[in-house]
């Protein structure tokens, strides 16, 4: 078996005692059996050392985001729990009522009757779009056949002749009294001929003319509105069925539905906030609340520690020793409280320093290869780092 010397800082106190001659006394060492053979020397431990403390890699200090009256405490000190277990509960009555209301509103909005009404709205919107589209298409085609235009032109010729004849007849009776029957008949004939001619000319001009810019803009705007209405109706109907809708989907009804869904999610979150749930598997290390007490927001009430993921965190590694430490480096940890040593390796080195009693120190995280029996968070550890390649 090869023998490796582990320098223990606790024995530095003995090193402070002078020899008889007043000179420095050599530092004592502890020799550990680590396996191997005399012909294959292993790493030397003790060139860089530090004190440390045992900590859990998975540890959760749990508190409520909101204050409230504690209704139930489901765990006690030392209990084993699993991730997802409810540990502490506040009075959840108001939050549950709010969730019930939000769910009722959403159920009503997504009922079979609401879906049927949405389908009807889609059909109506598509019909309106079809009519608007036909009006746009008609802008590019004549408004009447040539035969119809020729017929109107002939009617106008006859109407003009009729107006001319009626005007001449009225001129013969114009000087007669206004209540004279012949004058009245002549005037009626003339005005009817004038009205008929104006109507025919207006009809002819509309069928033979081109739509104005205002007419074109209005017809196109009506089509755009109809297309948008179809999109919104289809998006809303799809959302009611739980089908995906595009990110650009819009519409008043869709917004109302999404607001109702958001209200349910928010109510669920408020109800969930009335419970402290363990995020990890572990053991209860602290329970600082009782039923009937008021829990303040942010007040740590429960500590959950994973005893299967213990590691060592150094507290006083000097900046002078830092160059002799690297990630992956072998480590030997001595736990005096349980009289055990544990091998491990450097998992991480803090990028920034801390100050301890005027000295600059860096924290190092050490992962243990095996967890000694009886090891608990908070125990003091002496760490010796192996030599670097």
Protein topology:
Blueprint: E1 3-6, H1 12-15, E2 30-33, E3 45-56, E4 59-62, E5 68-73, E6 80-81, E7 86-90, H2 93-109, H3 112-138, H4 146-173, H5 181-208, H6 213-240, H7 252-272, E8 275-277, E9 282-287, E10 294-295, E11 302-305, E12 310-314, E13 317-318, E14 330-335, E15 340-349, E16 354-356, E17 359-362, E18 364-368, E19 380-386
Antiparallel strand pairs: 1-2, 3-12, 3-19, 4-11, 5-7, 5-10, 6-9, 7-8, 9-11, 12-18, 13-17, 14-15, 14-19, 15-18, 16-17
Mind explaining what this structure looks like?
With 389 residues, this protein is an alpha+beta fold. Among the domains are: 3-57 and 309-386, Elongation Factor Tu (Ef-tu), domain 3; 60-90 and 274-304, Beta Barrel (OB fold (Dihydrolipoamide Acetyltransferase, E2P)). Helices cover 39% and strands 24% of the residues. It contains 7 helices and 19 strands. The protein has helices spanning 12-15, 93-109, 112-138, 146-173, 181-208, 213-240, 252-272, and strands at residues 3-6, 30-33, 45-56, 59-62, 68-73, 80-81, 86-90, 275-277, 282-287, 294-295, 302-305, 310-314, 317-318, 330-335, 340-349, 354-356, 359-362, 364-368, 380-386. The strands form 5 sheets. Strands 3-12-18-15-14-19 form a 6-stranded antiparallel beta barrel. The chain has a 4-stranded antiparallel beta sheet with strand order 4-11-9-6, with no helix packed on it. Strands 8-7-5-10 form a 4-stranded antiparallel beta sheet, with no helix packed on it. Helix 3 runs antiparallel to helix 6 (213-240) and helix 6 (213-240) runs parallel beside helix 7 (252-272). It is elongated, with a radius of gyration of 47 Å. Residues 1-40 have low confidence and may be disordered.
């Amino acid at each position: 078996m090869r023998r490796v010397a582990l320098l223990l800082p606790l024995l530095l106190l003995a090193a402070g005692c002078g020899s008889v001659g007043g000179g420095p006394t050599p530092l004592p060492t502890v020799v550990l059996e680590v396996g191997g053979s005399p012909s294959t020397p292993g790493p030397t431990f003790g060139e860089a050392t530090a004190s440390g403390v045992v900590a859990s890699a998975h540890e959760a200090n749990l508190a409520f985001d909101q204050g409230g009256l504690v209704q139930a405490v489901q765990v006690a000190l030392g209990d084993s729990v699993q991730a997802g277990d409810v540990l502490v509960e506040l009075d959840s009555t108001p939050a549950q009522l709010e969730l019930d209301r939000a769910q009722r509103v959403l159920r009503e909005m997504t009922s079979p009757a609401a879906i049927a009404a949405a389908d009807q709205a889609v059909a109506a919107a598509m019909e309106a779009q079809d009519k608007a589209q036909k009006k746009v298409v008609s802008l590019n085609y004549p408004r009447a056949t040539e035969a119809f235009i020729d017929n109107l032109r002939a009617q106008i010729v006859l109407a003009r002749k009729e107006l001319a004849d009626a005007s001449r007849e009225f001129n013969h009776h114009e000087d007669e009294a206004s209540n004279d029957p012949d004058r009245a008949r002549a005037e009626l004939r003339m005005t009817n001929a004038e009205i008929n001619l104006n109507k025919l000319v207006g009809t002819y001009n509309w069928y033979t003319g081109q739509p104005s810019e205002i007419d074109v803009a209005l017809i196109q705007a009506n089509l755009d509105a109809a297309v948008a209405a179809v999109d919104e109706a289809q998006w809303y109907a799809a959302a009611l069925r739980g089908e995906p809708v595009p990110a650009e989907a819009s519409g008043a009804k869709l917004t109302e539905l999404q607001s109702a869904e958001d209200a349910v999610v928010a109510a669920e979150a408020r109800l969930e906030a009335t419970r402290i749930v363990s995020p990890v598997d572990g053991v209860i290390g602290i329970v600082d609340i009782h039923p009937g007490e008021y829990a303040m927001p942010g007040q740590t009430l429960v500590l959950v520690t994973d005893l299967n993921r213990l590691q060592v965190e150094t507290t006083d590694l000097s900046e002078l020793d830092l160059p002799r430490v690297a990630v992956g480096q072998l480590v030997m940890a001595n736990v005096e409280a349980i009289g055990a040593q544990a091998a491990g390796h450097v998992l991480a080195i803090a990028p920034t320093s801390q100050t301890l009693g005027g000295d600059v120190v860096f924290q190092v995280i050490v992962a243990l290869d095996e967890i000694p029996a009886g090891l608990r968070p908070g125990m003091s550890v002496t760490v010796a780092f192996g030599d670097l390649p």
